[in-house]
Amino acid sequence: MYIIAVAGTGYVGLVAGVCFAEIGHQVTCVDIDENKVNLMKKGISPIYEADLGDLMQKNYAAGKIDYTTDYRSAYKNADAIFIGVGTPEQSDGSADLSYIATVARQIAETIENDCLVVVKSTVPVGTNDKVEQFIKDFLVNDVKVEVASNPEFLAQGSAVHDTLHAARIIIGTESKWAEEMLMKIYQPFNLPIVSVNRRSAEMIKYAANDFLALKISYMNDIANLCESVGADIQDVARGMSFDERIGSKFLNAGIGYGGSCFPKDTKALEYLARQDGYELRTIKAAIGVNKDQKTMLYKKACRRLITFNGLKVAVLGLTFKPGTDDLREAPSLENVPLLLEQGADIYAYDPVGADNFKNKYPAGKNSRGSITYVDKPEQALEGANVCFIFTEWGEIKAVEPGTYKEQMRTPLVYDGRNIYELADMNEAWVEYYSIGRPFIKTSKEFSIAISEVAAIKC
Ligand code: UDX
Fold first, then answer.
1. Which of 318, 368, 388, 445 could potentially form a cystine with 353 if both were Cys, beta carbons 3.0 to 4.6 Å apart?
2. Is residue 142 over pLDDT 60?
3. Does one domain contain both 305 and 172?
4. Which residue among 276, 293, 310 closes a domain?
5. 329 and 389 assigned to the same domain
6. How far apart (Å, rounded) are the C-alpha atoms in residues 254 and 247?
7. In this predicted complex, what is the ipTM?
8. Is residue 322 located within the same domain as residue 394?
């Protein structure tokens, strides 16, 4: 059992801290936000994440985890301090390391015992060397301190599961002491451990995330081509997936990747390469494809309709993916402002993300249009002229094809997640556009109805 402090209680820090407590270590999580700390002490998770609240309550009650704003008491005698603070993207694509620097300085000024500092945050290659030097430069007491890299691969919505059952643990160290200690900390997880040097560990994180982003953008690129040549991306992906070298995961074409990692990490690696005078052409292409993909459906709809002005537009799904309330880089954030500018009256549904979205787009009149939040997908669809699907929540997938025909004034659906079978939408008489698949155009009457509505209202 080790005494562990964790700096930062976002996705990375809090989940790591809770999982370390769960496997038997003594953990203190540090955050600067007093309200957040008080909530966490009550077992209330500041993030929407399956199983996290239960584990927080259980381990807090058992005295295995505590939360504090007092970093001195947490760091002073810790065997290891894990840094899980944010490294947000700056306007030039580089990572902002100021939170890491603040924590590093606090560590240097407070530790009283030999201590391993472990960077979990995603940082540009070479940062761990600098963090170690920085801590040593500011060190107050005569103790041994070393920095190790231990990047995190959890996905939002399944963060606890991904941590406890990770495919692998990556540790990047520069000494036997650091390597052995990290190995021992992770031993109870009983997972494969890949031990490399610090720079390779830092690079593994970017290389893995960017590869997945590249895979998605590649499928989106092929999907767009499928549409023009009359192929079906889902059949193409299925055919590809039997090749073990390709694999079956992350082949889903859609409305572009979002979230806190892929957009940020692709830009950060591209920036890193650029600083070194190298052009990372594959990743640049992935970023470009993703940017265009986010508004692909909107552009399709613009080609189909005269205007959005005065149309009732159902928006199903606001978060960047299901299982989270996170809106970062979500396709909805690209499309909703475009629709509002065009005068659409939006009826938005999301089972979890609506409150966060309201902070950016309050209910009521907005730009030339308006936005109303509803509690059920059917309420958004009632009397709607057009529907956009941006997130594949179970609640949205559960909407029967026939419901679009029954509820909407004109059943015209743009699905960014390919959640319906073409045959089912065809049978339900829904005019259905998705990604990388042939579109289903229903009877002529529907097209006339849509044009009339648009013409009358604008
Ligand atoms: C990702 C990585 O999976 C994780 O290992 C890393 O640590 C952080 O980044 P996350 O961003 O939480 O996790 O979600 P993920 O499930 O990977 O999805 C990212 C985005 O890609 C979502 O917008 C999702 O909709 C999109 N995606 C994913 C696709 O468009 N197609 C796919 O086949 C898979």
1. 318
2. yes
3. no
4. 293
5. yes
6. 18
7. 0.98
8. yes
Confidence of residue 34 (pLDDT cuts 50, 70, 90): very high
Q: How remote is the CA of residue 66 from the centroid of ligand 1, in Å?
A: 30
CA 370 to centroid of ligand 1, rounded, Å: 30
Among the atoms of ligand 1, which is closest to the Cα of residue 122?
Answer: 7
CA of 110 to the centre of ligand 1 (A): 37
Q: Domain boundary residue among 146, 174, 196? A: 196
**In this structure, which residue's CA is closest to atom 10 in ligand 1?**
155
pLDDT in tens, 381-401: 999 999 999 999 999 999 999
Mutate to test the pocket of ligand 1, among 169, 206, 260, 262 (most ligand atoms within 8 A of CB): 262
Tokens of 301: 């709809």
What's the pLDDT score for residue 439? 84
Q: Where is average pLDDT lowest: 272-281, 313-322, 361-370, 433-442?
A: 433-442
Q: Are residues 192 and 210 in the same domain?
A: no
Q: Which of 261, 302, 387, 458 is catalytic?
A: 261
CA-wise closest residue to 115 among 85, 79, 141, 91: 79
Is 0.90 surpassed by the pTM of this model?
A: yes
Q: Output the domain CATH number for residue 187.
A: 3.40.50.720
User: Using alpha carbons only, what angle is made at residue 99 by residues 96 and 101, rounded to the nearest 5 degrees?
Assistant: 95
Look up residue 442 and give its amino acid: T
On whether both 237 and 102 belong to a single domain, the answer is: no
Residues at CB less than 6 angstroms from ligand 1:
152-156, 209, 212, 216, 250-252, 254, 257-259, 261-262, 320-321
**pLDDT score at 70:** 96
* DSSP 3-state of 385: coil
Q: How many domains does the chain have?
A: 3
Neighbours of 238 (CB within 10 A): 12
Domain of 309? Answer: 296-457
